[in-house]
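Appendix B. One record, verbatim.
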Amino acid sequence: MKILVAGSANIDVVGLSDKRLIVYGNNKGKVMIKDGGTARNIAANSIELGLPVSLLTAVGEDEMGRNLLANMIEMGASTIPSTRIAGAQTPINIKLIDNDRALYNNVYSEPLSKLLRVNYVKKVTADRYDILLADTSLGEDVLRYFTSFVQIKERILIPAFGEEVDELTEMMCKFNTLIVDADSAELSTKMFVRGVQDAKDCARHLLTLGFRNVFILMDERGVVAADSINVLHVPSFKAQHYGSQAAWDGFAAGIVYTSANNLPIFQKALFAMAAYAQAARCEFSNEKFSLDTVGNILLNGEKNEELTEEE
């Protein structure tokens, strides 16, 4: 099994307020510095689920970038495809989190993965992969290369953190699987997504564009998953909070894991929602994200059944 996760990596500086954030004031709390980025996080979560992963990203030629790649190697990832950009600083994202664990504000740097060029990617990636997950921080030429010239059984496309997919190009529709939130689903299709039925209608439309699998994540309302046979809704598990990048990246890693194990779409969606809930639990605690802890959510987690009614 060969899995490539390609896209953004950065350093997250997270300010977690003890109380409701005061605008233009001082807020006491905790400040954390940790490795982040959509592709980096999904790669790390996939490794914790027991998958062999190579990471294709770009960081700065600085201590932060060196440490980020070294930490990924320590986790078990191959970072051979990744590069350090001479003279560049590793991107830093600054996040302010309210006391209810909701993202209050975010200031982010442009990901260096946008600077990756096709000639470089050709040199450092294999000719054949079982699974590719790419985020939209990559340039369109790189995404086109992955859809046209590399032999890949399963191609998964996901928006990078801070980006919304406002238009689905013909090239993007060559990916097998699309993971989006309700906002990006609305923007890219110009359809309203206000509830489960809306999301199902939107998913059906996205299938007509060429995708084989579509997942529209609605956080506490769960996920709508669609393929050529099924269009179904899976409720969320009760979690510490909803809508965070950590939960989103946990969900995506769940899709990678279930794709690697050739599970049907309902089981993909169910497992990914359990991974979403566990990743949310881990974000501000010492809990572990692993196959065992996600499995525990699957067996014992409580679902938000009251949020599943169709509108």
